[in-house]
Amino acid sequence: MRDEIKKFGQRIKGIRLKKGMSQGDVAKLLGTHRTYVSSMERGLRNPSLLTIRRIAKALRLSPKEIV
Q: Assign residue 30 a region: left if phi > 0, alpha if psi is -120 to 50, beta otherwise?
């Protein structure tokens, strides 16, 4: 399970970088701190479904596209 969480975080990071966004940009849109985005991208956090939906919205994608 930990590998899946890490892969998800790497996917989020890749999408974020492709869109030219910083962790701070994403954090601001999520209403959280940059360190939360950082720990999620490193696979240290297991985001809830609600958080995944918020991340997708921040990245202007559907949840299906980021999972």
A: alpha
Q: What gap in Å lies between CA 27 and CA 22, rounded to an integer?
A: 9
Average pLDDT in the chain:
95
Q: Is the pLDDT of residue 34 over 90?
A: yes
Instruction: Tell me which of 3.80.10.10, 1.10.260.40, 1.10.10.60, 3.65.10.10 is the CATH number of domain 2-66.
Output: 1.10.260.40
Write down the domain spans for the chain.
2-66
Cα–Cα distance for residue pair 33/45, rounded to 1 Å: 13
